[in-house]
Design goal:
six-stranded antiparallel sheet, 11 helices, six-stranded mixed sheet, 374 residues, globular, alpha/beta
Length: 374
C-alpha cells in the first residue's frame, strides 16, 4: 500500500470548519455520529483531485444530488455549488489543503474558492435557458434580465504550480462545454453507498483476464458455484447484457442477484481503476451482510496493498469497523500498523477530530469496550 496524502486541513467546506487530520496512513477509517462530516471529508479530498479546474468542483458538488436523485428530483448545478459552502454563507469561502507525496517528494496541494453572492446580468442565451430550467412557463417578454449567482476566484496549488481561474456562475449557467481536467494530479476515485444501484461494471472487468480472476475469487465468497462473468447480447434487443455463470443454475443476469454481489463487484472495479492512487469508499458496509465482512475486508486491504492504493473509508457499523481492524493481525504485527482511525464529533461551532492508531483503538476496544464512534 502507499501514503499519498499525509495530512489534510479543511478551513471551511460544507459543515466543516478548521479540521486538521494529520499522520494519515495506508488505511484511514473515518467514523462518528450521523451528520458529523464523514462524507464531507471524502468530498474535500476529491476537491484536490484536480484542484485547478472548476469542472472538478462541480462534479464534487453534484455527487450527493446524483445519489439522492434515485429517490428525489435533481437540484440545479447552482444549488449544488451553493451547498458546498458553510451555511449561512454571507462571504463564501472554501479552503482545503494537504501535504501530498508526489513523485517521491512532499509538496503542498490547495484548493481555495473565494468570492461573493450577487445578482448577475444575463445574456440572451442564459435568459432563454431560464425558460427550460424553470418549473413555470414563461412568455418571451417575461424572460429574466438577472439571476442569483456567484462571482469569485478559484485558486489552486498543485505540483509546485499556482493557478487561478475566474468564476462567474449563476442559477441558469450551462455546465456543458467547460474545461474538464484529466486527473493528472491525483488519481482518485470516490465510491458512494449507492453506486452499485446505478451502475454495472462487468463490462470493464471482463476486458482484463487477470483482474477478472480476482473479481471471481471475491464473489465466490458469496457463492462458490459462480464460475464466470459474461457479456452476452440479448436475443430480442441485441443489446449487451451482463451475466453471471453458475455451475448449477446456469447463466443468470446480474440483475437477478442481490445487491451484495453488485457492491463487491463495484469495490473490485474501483481497485482496478485506482491502482497507484487513492480510493475513497463511503459507508463501506452498504449491501454487504455482516457474515462476509471478514473475508471481503481482508480482500479489500490485500488488494489495495497489492495495487499501491491509499484507502479512506467511512462506516456506520461497529461490526464493519472491528472487521477492518482485524485485517491487521496485531498479535503478529508487533511494529507495523497500516490503520489510522479518525473519529469526528460535530459541535455548534466546529468539527472536532480524534486521531488514533488502529493498534491503540484495537487494544482499548478489547480491554475497555472502547466506543470509537462517540
Amino acid at each position: 500500500m502507499a501514503i499519498y496524502i499525509e495530512n489534510l486541513h479543511i478551513h471551511t467546506f460544507r459543515g466543516i470548519r478548521d479540521l486538521t487530520a494529520e499522520h494519515l496512513n495506508h488505511i484511514n477509517l473515518i467514523v462518528g455520529d450521523n451528520n458529523c462530516g464523514k462524507t464531507s471529508v471524502l468530498e474535500a479530498l476529491l476537491m484536490l483531485r484536480d484542484p485547478a479546474v472548476f469542472s472538478n468542483v462541480l462534479r464534487v458538488a453534484r455527487l450527493r444530488d446524483q445519489d439522492n436523485s434515485l429517490f428525489t428530483g435533481k437540484a440545479s448545478a447552482y444549488e449544488n455549488f451553493y451547498n458546498l459552502f458553510p451555511q449561512p454563507s454571507k462571504e463564501p469561502l472554501i479552503q482545503i489543503s494537504a501535504l501530498v507525496q508526489s513523485f517521491r517528494r512532499e509538496e503542498a496541494a490547495e484548493c481555495t474558492i473565494n468570492g461573493e453572492w450577487t445578482r448577475i446580468l444575463l445574456d440572451s442565451s442564459d435568459a432563454l435557458r431560464s425558460v427550460r430550467v424553470s418549473s413555470s412557463y414563461k412568455k418571451m417578454f417575461d424572460l429574466p434580465s438577472e439571476a442569483e449567482g456567484f462571482v469569485g476566484v478559484l485558486t489552486a496549488v498543485e505540483g509546485g504550480r499556482r493557478a487561478e481561474e475566474r468564476i462567474t456562475f449563476h442559477e441558469y449557467s450551462d455546465i456543458t462545454g467547460r474545461k474538464v481536467g484529466n486527473y493528472e494530479y491525483l488519481n482518485m476515485l470516490y465510491l458512494s453507498p449507492v453506486d452499485h444501484m446505478k451502475n454495472t461494471v462487468i463490462n470493464r472487468i471482463v476486458k482484463d483476464p487477470t483482474y477478472k480472476d480476482i473479481c471471481l475469487h471475491v464473489i465466490q465468497i458469496f457463492d462458490p458455484e459462480i464460475t464466470d462473468l459474461l457479456i452476452l447480447k440479448n436475443e430480442r434487443t441485441n443489446r449487451p447484457v451482463e451475466y453471471i455463470k453458475h455451475s448449477r443454475l446456469g447463466i443468470m443476469p446480474v440483475s437477478t442477484y442481490g445487491d451484495g454481489i453488485k457492491r463487491v463487484l463495484m469495490l473490485a472495479n474501483a481497485i482496478a481503476r485506482t491502482a497507484g492512487g487513492i480510493l475513497l469508499i463511503d459507508e463501506v458496509e452498504t449491501a454487504i451482510h455482516a457474515q462476509y465482512y471478514n473475508d471481503i475486508f481482508r480482500f479489500l486491504v490485500k488488494a489495495c496493498r497489492q495495487f499501491g492504493i491509499q484507502l479512506f473509508i467511512t462506516t456506520h457499523s461497529i461490526e464493519a469497523f472491528d472487521s477492518l481492524l482485524s485485517t491487521q493481525d496485531y498479535e503478529d504485527q508487533q511494529e507495523q500498523d497500516d490503520i489510522t482511525v479518525l473519529t469526528l464529533k460535530k459541535t455548534h461551532e466546529q468539527t472536532l477530530i480524534r486521531n488514533m492508531s488502529g493498534r491503540e483503538v484495537s487494544r482499548n476496544r478489547e480491554a475497555f469496550d472502547f466506543e470509537v464512534r462517540i
